[in-house]
Amino acid sequence: MRPRLLNTLPQTTxxxxxxxxxxxxxxxxxxxxxxxxxxxxxxxxxxxGIITAIIGGFFVSAFGGSxxxxxxxxxxxxxxxxxxxxxxxxxxxxxxxFMAGILLLIATALRAGTLxxxxxxxxxxxxxxxxxxxIAASQLNDALGLGIANLxxxxxPKIATLWAGLGSFSFAAFAICVATxxxxxxxxxxxxxxxxxxxxxxxxxxxVPLFNLPVDTIADRFGPLSGALPKPxxxxxxxxxxxELFPSALIIAFLAGVESLLSAIVADRMIADRHxxxxxxxAQGLANIASPMFGGLPVTGAIARTATxxxxxxxxxxxxxxxxxTLLVVMSVAAPLAxxxxxxxxxxxxxxxxxxxxxxxxxxxxxxxxxSDVLLLCLTLFxxxxxxxxxxxxxxxxxxxxxxLQRRGVPDPDWDPRDK
Length: 420
Hints:
Oligomer: single chain
Number of domains: 1
Largest sheet: 2 strands, antiparallel
C-alpha cells in the first residue's frame, strides 16, 4: 500500500517536473468548470465542487497507487449526492461521505482492491448508462431555460414537470447550451491540446452580457463564489445519524472504490503501468474523509481528467498535486470571474458528459454479448433510472456474480475507457 509518490520523488528531474507542472495546470483548467457544474447538478453550492477537486486531487495523488490518477467530483455521483441532499440536507451528505471514507479504509485493510475484476461489466455498463440518462434529464431545466424552481428528484415526476414547463422555453438559453456543446466538440477535434472546455465556456458566457441575453449566471442564482477554503470541521457522528445514513455511505463507498479502480486500470493502459489497487483504495478513503471536513462532495478517480493528464504529459503523482494547488490559486484570485459562467453553458457541458458516459457508439457491441449479459445490463439500467441506486447495484452485482459462478474459467472482462 506504499503510495507511488514516494517511489517517484527520488527520480524527479527538471524535465519530468516541467512536464508534470504543465499537465497539472492543463487538468486544472478542465476541472474548474466541470467541478462547478457537477456540484450544481448535485444540488450543492457551486464552490463545493472546487473544494472537492482541491482536497480530493491532493489526497488521491499524494497517497494513491496510480502514477497519473486525478481525483475529484465526477458525474457518477450526481444522482446519489442529489438524493442524499434532498433527503438529509448538506450536513447529511457530509456525514455520509465521511462514513464512506472510513468504509474505504476498512476495505483497504481487507485488501479488497483486487476484487474489482469480479464485478460484471454488464452491471457497470447498465449502471453507467442509467446515470447518464438521469444526468441528462437533470440538465434539461437549465438547457431549455425553463426556470423551474423545484424539480422533482425521481425520474418520472421530473420528466412530467419538465414537460409541463415547456411553455417557458427560452431560445437564448437553448442557443447558449447548443453553442457550448458544438464548440467543445469542434475544439476537441480541431485543437486537442487546447483547453477546449474552458475556451467554449468563456466564449458562450461572454456572449451573454455582450448581446444582453436573458440567461442566468452562477452569481445570479447562487451568489458570488467563495474565494477561500473553509476551516475543517468534523461532521455529525452521533449514533442515530450514522445509522440513518449508513446505506448512503455504503453506496458512496462502492461508487468511489469501483470508479477509481476502473479509472486506474484505464490509466495503466495509457502509460503501460500497473497501479497498486489497495493503495488506491487507501487514498480514496483518506480523500473522502478529508473532503467532507471542508464541506466538499464525495471523491473518486475521474477518468476523463486522468486521461487529460496523461495526454498533457503528466507521468507522476506530482501532476495531480499541481492540479490541486492550481485550483486553490484560481479559487483565491479568480472566483469572481468564475461566478460569471452561465448556467445553460454548464448544462451543455454535463449533457456532453452524459453522452460520453452512455457510450452510444458501443450499444451495438453490448447487444452482441450473451443474452444473459444483455438482460443484466438492461435490468441494472432500468433499476438505476426508475427505482433506486442501492437496489440497482445490489441486484445487478448479486445476479452478475451468480452468473459468473456459472461460467468458471471465463477470463476477466477487458475494461474499456469511459469518458466521465
